[in-house]
Design a protein that fits this description.
alpha+beta; 4-stranded mixed β-sheet; 100 residues; Glutaredoxin
Amino acid sequence: MKASFHDIINSEKPVLVDFWATWCGPCVAMAPVLKDVAEKVGDSAKIIKIDVDKNQQIASQYKIQSVPTMILFKKGEVLWRESGMKSVQQLVGLINQHMD
């Protein structure tokens, strides 16, 4: 069974959610960056991608106006949120700040 979005963001570990769309150039460009971030943080955090076109209810719940928008959750709380492209270093640093 697939975990629900709610279950995933309520994790004890930080969860970085990338709200993206297939038609968005910067979103596509972020894919290898997020892959690098995932490799660097390993099991200490989770990184998931949410396609705003396929998950309109979640996108509207979090008032996603532009893509890419990234939100860092921990235990269901929004710790950080920003739109636009980010570097591997920025994202790894951000996740590391919110480790226990």
